[in-house]
Amino acid sequence: MQLITAVIQPQKLEDVKTALKGLGVSGMTIAPVSGVGRQSGHTESYRGAAITVETVPKVRLDILATDEDVEWIINEIVAAARTGHIGDGKIWVVPATQVIRVSTGERGERAIRA
Questions:
Q1: What are the residue ranges spanned by the domains of the chain?
Q2: Cβ-contact 26, 4 below 8 angstroms
Q3: What pLDDT, in 10s, does the model give residues 56-112?
Q4: d(CA 107, CA 101)
Q5: CATH (residue range 2-111)
Q6: Environment class of residue 68 by beta-carbon count within 10 Å: exposed (0-12), middle (13-18) or buried (19+)?
Q7: Cα 101 from chain centre
Q8: pTM of the entire structure?
């Protein structure tokens, strides 16, 4: 099992959710986050004063997946989230050594199936 984490632009969230739901991904955790990458923030004007915004708002998705499903989930996220510009986001995958469904006590892959 793997934990897929994707940080994407907020305006692409609905596209990503729709793409994943259409392919049977039944669960994900979504959280608003902010950060800085290659785009290094930006400068805005507020009441005539220049203000440097160091971080950029993003959305983080966490998806637990079986080893077999990881690649197609990643491909769907990339396809739905990509604009072709700096700031589209990042995806990383780490092993999930234990997963337990709290309501039933199911463990492993059974805990991430719908």
A1: 2-111
A2: no
A3: 889 999 999 999 999 999 999 999 999 998 889 999 999 999 999 999 999 999 998
A4: 6
A5: 3.30.70.120
A6: exposed
A7: 21
A8: 0.86
Token pair of 11 as six digits: 């305006």
Instruction: Count CB neighbours of 94 within 10 A.
Output: 9
| Amino acid at residue number 70 | V
Nearest to 64 by CA among 114, 15, 102: 114
Closest CA to 64 of 11, 15, 109: 109
